Amino acid sequence: MLKNATSTPVIISTDPGIDDAVAIAIATSDLSLDVKLICPISGNVSLSKTTLNTQKLLTFFDKSIPVVPGSRKPLLRAAKDASGVHGKTGMDGYPFPEVNLPVDNSMTASAAMHSVVNDSTQPVTLIGIGPLTDIALFIHEYPDDLANIEEVVLMGGSLGRGNFGVLSEFNFATDPEAAKIVFTSGLKIRVAPMEVGRQAKIMPNISEKIKSLGKVGDMFYKLFSKYRGGSFNKGLNMYDALAVALVLRPDLFEEVETHIEIETTGRYTAGASLIDLKGYLDLPNNATVAVNVDAEGFEKWFVEEIAKTI
């Protein structure tokens, strides 16, 4: 499918991961987005596995999109993973075909981002659905490029309690220093936090609808059956697809402008995202945060978008 002249140029930083797989499928199949580059990063599983998973998905969907692997670990901290949620490979459950898409190891992810942004005649949107290490490195290394960034759209952070630490969500808490760099960059940032992902559940009847969508539906159904982000029987949390939905269907969300402060020094709270909805910090707004999503509207949109990938 050919992208139209008004398609939004997009770079995706991702750590697939089953919910990342859904986000990548939607972003690369919707004609209003033009995915220029995908940069796998260590996160849900190791870099070698997230890179291979990206190759598997693009091979499966027959998409020729440049893939440049990113960071193997956070800026300052030891690598973590979420294989307990996504399985040993990150995308357990489906026998993907042998990959036929190469990766480019001749440059860093941040340099690849620079090349895309520098050459783009339209402002580029960065979609971050993993740890923010590579986006932070890009911001640090190429400050002159920031004028050609439309916005940074993220899945991460939490409005309250966490899923990584007591008050921290996995994507931000894996590399708090990187998250800090992103939120102090001055860029336009929009965020779908963890709790909104829990509102946007894919219920069993929706999984059954997706199952009927040919080999694509079969693939996702089998991945969903292995995913531990929620319950296959009580509803799955499609966290990372929310970031793509924020770009494509912002009308589905209630958004609030506020300040987000990333804790980096707390002994027990490093990686916590202080989403200051009540203005306690008395600091200027630096992000727009989704606080609610139309769950029924999201479900309908989700199935429609998956159907486009066939």
From TrEMBL:
Sorted alphabetically, which InterPro entries does this protein's record hold?
Inosine/uridine_hydrolase_dom, IUNH, Ribo_hydro-like
List membrane-spanning regions. Answer: none
GO cellular-component terms in the record?
cytosol
- Specify one Pfam family: IU_nuc_hydro
Q: Please give the Gene Ontology molecular function terms for this protein.
A: purine nucleosidase activity
**Keyword hit for Hydrolase:** yes
Name the PANTHER family on file: INOSINE-URIDINE PREFERRING NUCLEOSIDE HYDROLASE, NON-SPECIFIC RIBONUCLEOSIDE HYDROLASE RIHC
The protein depicted here goes by the name: Ribonucleoside hydrolase RihC
State the organism's lineage. Answer: Bacteria, Bacillati, Bacillota, Bacilli, Lactobacillales
